[in-house]
Design goal:
Number of helices: 4
Number of strands: 0
Largest sheet: none
Shape: flat
Oligomer: single chain
Helix content: 55-70%
Distance between the termini: 41 Å
Strand content: under 5%
Length: 85
């Protein structure tokens, strides 16, 4: 999660990517702080039910896609490794 309204958060995000991006996985999708997303806990609903067309739902969807794409690439690599043995 990133509060991109502040220069400090933008700087930290940049530094993390620059200094640690080759050492650990840093996702490209940045989830912004959102009151609508925070409300989901109190309402007991997912963001997709609470605010399906809001920014938070769109960003969480993008994050889910990014994670799925990574998983798919890893599975393909494992499959290729298994074929080469």
């Amino acid at each position: 999660m990133v509060d991109n309204r502040t220069n400090f958060a933008k700087d930290i995000s940049f530094i993390l990517r620059r200094d640690y991006g080759d050492k650990l996985r840093i996702f490209q999708t940045e989830i912004p702080l959102s009151i609508r997303a925070a409300e989901t806990s109190a309402k007991g609903k997912s963001i997709y039910l609470h605010d399906p067309y809001g920014l938070a739902a769109k960003v969480y969807e993008a994050f889910t896609k990014e994670v799925r794409d990574i998983d798919e690439k890893q599975r393909k690599r494992q499959h290729q490794t298994g074929l080469n043995r």
